[in-house]
Predict the structure.
Amino acid sequence: MSQTNGTIVGVNGNMITVEFEDAVSMNEVGYARLGELRLMSEIVRIRGTRADMQVFEDTAGLSVGDAVDFTGDMLSVELGPGLLTQIYDGLQNPLPQLAEACGFFLQRGTYLPALPRDTQWAFTPTAAVGDTLTAGESLGTVPEGIFEHRIMVPFRLRGRYTVASVAEAADYTIEDTVATLTDESGATIEVSMLQRWPVKMPITAYAERLRPTEPLVTKSRTVDTFFPVARGGTFCVPGPFGAGKTVLQQLMSRHADVDVVVVAACGERAGEVVETLREFPELEDPRTGKSLMARTIIICNTSSMPVAAREASVYTGITLASYYRQMGLNVLMLADSTSRWAQALRETSGRLEEIPGEEAFPAYLESVIASFYERGGVVTLKDGSTGSVTIGGTVSPAGGNFDEPVTQGTLKVVGAFHGLSRARSDARRYPAIDPLDSWSKYVSVVDNDAVEAGRSILRRGSEVGQMMKVVGEEGTSQDDFVLYLKSEYMDSAYLQQDAFDAIDGATSAERQQHVYGAISGFLQTNLHFADKTKARSFFHQLTQTTRDWNRADMGSQEFKDIQGRLEHMVSEAAVNA
Amino acid sequence: MHKVYHRVHNIAGNVINIRAEGVRYRELAEVTSRNGTSLAQVIRLQDDEVSLQVFAGARGVATDAEVRFLGHSMQVPFSEALLGRIFTGAANPRDRGPELSENLIDIGGPSVNPAKRIIPRNMVRTGIPMIDVFNTLVESQKLPIFARAGEPYNPLLARIALQAEVDVIVLGGMGLKHDDYLYFRDTLEESGALSRTVMFVHTASDPIVECLLVPDISLAVAEQFALEGKRVLVLLTDMTSFADAMKEIAITMEQIPSNRGYPGDLYSQLASRYEKAVDFDGAGSITILAATTMPGDDVTHPVPDNTGYITEGQFYLRNGRIEPFGSLSRLKQQVNGDTRDDHRTIMDTLIQLYAGYRETLEKQSMGFRMSDWDAKLLKYGTRFEKEMMDLTVNIPLEEALDLGWAILADCFEPMETGIQSKLTDRFWPKSEIGDQKSEVGEEAVESTEPAPVEA
């Protein structure tokens, strides 16, 4: 497309109105000129010869009559080796490099290449001259950290291509040509390791999409045992502020059993990103022994950064996640928080003076949320290997009330719901995932019957607890009271996890099976006590000991000893019957 | 360059419209009419029509008012001379001191690159146990104080201003009652803390637009001090007045409201101010404490609700005490691991037991029989409220922790507290530990007969 120029005729907040001459397209990117600076903007509405554009930067200083250069392209990201370990803003500007260029503050109008242009990558060809390939199939690989990074036929190419030449094994930069392809009409296309892809389009260069069945172990007992997540599945974590959404996500990004993690910090606190940013390089990934950062990409568009870029950031994140899925890897994409993203849509919609829907969110909110979550999934690639993108989004509902448009729109399209409750977090019962309200459609790491039995104890125990608030302890039968204590025991000894304890904070699937087996054995035992006080002190003791057990290394003698002690305690109480 | 316009063709609320060319977005202008002069800022450009927000309000602005564009956006003078001074929301002196006009800096500057932030690691000691022990304030943290209108949030802020270990305090007052303004001024003056303080105060009777400027000005000044390596504490009161000022102006501007009349960008507006809190890599820090009144004591009201999502925790002030439930300092984990080994455990245990106490109170009020356990909780809760929660308690952190153990030992057996045995062995007050140890073990089921309840 040819380059078009335009002139600013209106400025209102981060929205500018531009009069253009030739043709422009919806969602096309343009740059507003402010002296030496060029401010990136995107067309969000076209009316006659005027386009409304959202500016990804602060608009102060723009003036009627200033020029706008259109690029002809939609908002795109760079894909290629070198993405891992990077820290980007919502527009894929590398933040550490920006800091080197601009110092403490994010100066507007500074855009840097997302991938380093001078790094040499050791390319090994896998395709041969004469092969017929389609988009997404491998031409060769380069090593990136612990992975074989596939250099693929660019996703934008449609139809079949014949490999005319392919570079021999050697070091190349991402801009060097590594292969030439000819299409069916005979035209030649040069392919480098670098390709660009518009963020708002899903990458579909795979063979088939499958149903998510394999569990994704997060090492959180509540999640894996009771409300599991599947590889390629989707889940959401709504919760009022202070309930621990972000901590839960950080733990998942640390412990989840996946190859690559993409964290999109979208409109949230900068401080939280900084924790990830500073701590991940120091932490060791137990699977590989390398630093956790080696498998992580951080997209960071915090709440004080421009709103329009916040909207882009989740799409940037999911595009990078899908790119690594194309290499047969399992990717976890965490978006914190999707409500901020929805609010960014609301702000834009408000400035465009669109007719508002519920709570002034735009009417298209639900379809936008649905199409975002649909970009996850497990797929078979064209070479037969599988890859997955699992999407987890936090939701920050206004007033902690789940009956609001963003939560409801999300619940419709996800496979697991981890609802956080204020009551649990106030009582310091972390993780504050509500064991009664949450649900999951995926398969647990623990035997399903045992999980159902545990769920039933939790539910009945909570009913007794509710009743006891009305009729008091003396009005509760001994059996009901023991049931209540059992549910409390399950809660404190299994559901609650101390995130700051290295062992208790991350429970492997194997350990969950073992511990859950033991605990559900205890809970199925008929226990009898002389009176309620005896029962209470027994469960105090049992809880205490189990908590010590949770802190013991699974292979250690201590672990075995405590288990022995627990079994002894329970059997003694059972004998007392 | 600086053209003068004489024709105002539209005045609504605090916004005037003129036709002009070459005007830049956010540029300042001076509006002069018979009734006085005020600054105004460009808030919208549409073709040749310019909308300006008049800081002193449009009251008395004439259709032939003189509008002169200044070619720059809002600025504030910055120097050491600010310390000890009091200004209005438009940065004019409110005390009798001279006007400052040197070294002007822009307000509302760009946000800090997250890559240049560091993980907060320094505690700000306040001497208030409910803060130091349970919800430690950390340098670079942003925390609101949620309170009903009648709660003593301003005295609490003043006390923190006096006691907190920081270099500079910037106090931003929005919609303050004049009495409250004088209270702050006098309290800080008497204690000598005014010499490390800058105050930007908008009182309830000042023009509403100036209220909007207070956080930006306060934070711009704080940022400069922080860049000089100072540890700055910014106290803002009351942020709900700030949000209401935004609502008032947005509605006059005919923007589509979202929740309860507040503009749709309330979250982003609040966030861009709160996010100025920072610990610079290689310079000073900004910590923000902001009083936010909750209309109708409702935390789901849009202002406290959006604030809660932005800030790193919150303090609830209820019945003159910092409420332990709901109050949270998210950053406390960064610092309370290094204070003393028992800090975290004491913090969690005391609160869990206090929650039990509240449940028991409920049961008691409904007339249920109290078990032995309930009696223990009642005894504990009473002591806890009196010796820890009272805001007049002023003791260092270490003393407060010791006090926590003393209260526990007075009320409970070690195993009833749920504290892991390693810690009770070490910290449980010594006089009783001999008896307790023998009980922990395999015989425990039999031997945990609760101790007789003391009256």
Summary: Chain A has four domains: 5-74, 78-113+206-440, 121-193, 448-575. Chain A touches chain B through 90 residues (CB under 8 Å). The first strand of chain A starts at residue 5 and ends at 12. Chain A has a mean pLDDT of 92.
